[in-house]
Amino acid sequence: MQEISSDISRPSLSGLDRASLAARLSAIGVPDKQLRMRVNQIWSWLYTHGTRDFDAMTNVSKDVRAALREHYTLDRLEIADAQFSDDGTRKWLFKMNDGQLVETVYIPEAGRGTLCVSSQVGCTLTCRFCHTGTQKLVRNLEVAEIVGQVVSARDELQDWPGDTNQSNTGNRRITNVVMMGMGEPLYNAENVAHALNVMSDGDGLGLSKRRITLSTSGVVPEIPKIGADTGVMLAISLHAVKDELRNELVPLNKKYPIEELLDACRQWPSLSNAKRITFEYVMLKDVNDSNADARALVKLLAGIPAKINLIPFNPWPGAPYECSSWERIEAFADIVNRAGYASPVRRPRGRDIMAACGQLKSASVKPTAAAKKMAELASRNLTR
């Protein structure tokens, strides 16, 4: 496993899962009979307290702390760039040990804050509406690199117990995590599953499984398994109601067509009205946004406990599509609502820093004037 560290000779413990942490402690001579206790102690310091200094681990013996200092660090992911949107959204460009870059986005809202986490450098898919899809897959992220995005974001947001932002109320700034950043999570399923279980560990980062959502374009064989392994929520990047169009928008559909995808969804563990699947549907002008499409979508999902997220298309330089008008989106949503489905329209966030849904790309550069103008025009299009 690749650890996070700025010092190759001393790898970081930050971001590791329990098994990897136990292996690191065993490697420096912690006796087997002490391993479970020491892992639990250090786990709490890493993920409950966000500790960045071994000496702060006061319930760990001095000799163990000395060995930890000698062989390991608590270094975080390196921030190569940080951008701040006018609407409060933040985007970080994180640099891995090998120099590869990934983007992570924080979206603050009333009473909650959502962190959008990446699973790959680049993406193996080529979804036509997604900027990330224009970048070739470089590699999968390791468990520590996925968890490390959450740890580093909590550092930047001062979101640990005792930090300024938590000292009075104890409220977290990161309440939700969505695996909707760069990459297809289910093409890195094993590492993603381990990372999600670190995030939901009640003795560590402690995020509710109902507040962690994994989004997939439809890697059908992996869907039931990761549901059983993690117990988190599922989102499906759907975007079309017929295979012919979805083959164009989401080329993975040629391998796993809609019928097979929905059959896999029906196998999602504990699927119920209390644990619905979210179907994501990007609104593309004159492509998939007609009333007929809305009625077909309702018919397609009949019998599956579901919520339908309508996503205004977020532009990027060279994009082949335009966003549907606000009037068209409202008409579409009305049909879905009247059929009994919740269909919230996801308000674009962070467009001015290319941090909105579908805009992430790790060869990140600050937006050009043309890109900013495109985002401004799209936002006006959605103004009531």
Describe this structure in words.
By secondary structure, the protein is of the alpha/beta class. The chain has two domains: 18-71, DNA polymerase, domain 1; 78-381, Aldolase class I (TIM Barrel, Alpha-Beta Barrel). The protein has eleven helices and eleven strands. The protein has helices spanning 18-27, 32-47, 62-71, 143-156, 189-199, 223-230, 243-249, 258-266, 291-300, 326-338, 369-381, and strands spanning 78-84, 90-95, 101-109, 112-116, 120-121, 139-140, 176-179, 212-216, 233-237, 277-283, 306-312. The strands form two sheets. It has a nine-stranded mixed beta sheet with strand order 1-2-3-4-7-8-9-10-11, with helices on one face. β10 (277-283), α9 and β11 (306-312) form a beta-alpha-beta unit. α1 (18-27) packs across α2 (32-47), α4 packs parallel to α5 (189-199) and α9 runs parallel beside α10 (326-338). It is elongated, with a radius of gyration of 21 Å. The chain starts with 17 loop residues before the first helix and ends with a helix. Residues 1-6, 354-361 and 364-384 have low confidence and may be disordered.
Give the gist of this structure.
The chain is an alpha/beta fold and about 375 residues long.
What is the topological layout?
Blueprint (H helix, E strand, L loop, with lengths): L17 H10 L4 H16 L14 H10 L6 E7 L5 E6 L5 E9 L2 E5 L3 E2 L17 E2 L2 H14 L19 E4 L9 H11 L12 E5 L6 H8 L2 E5 L5 H7 L8 H9 L10 E7 L7 H10 L5 E7 L13 H13 L30 H13 L3
Parallel strand pairs: 4-7, 7-8, 8-9, 9-10, 10-11
Antiparallel strand pairs: 1-2, 2-3, 3-4, 5-6
Helix pairs in contact: 1-2, 4-5, 9-10
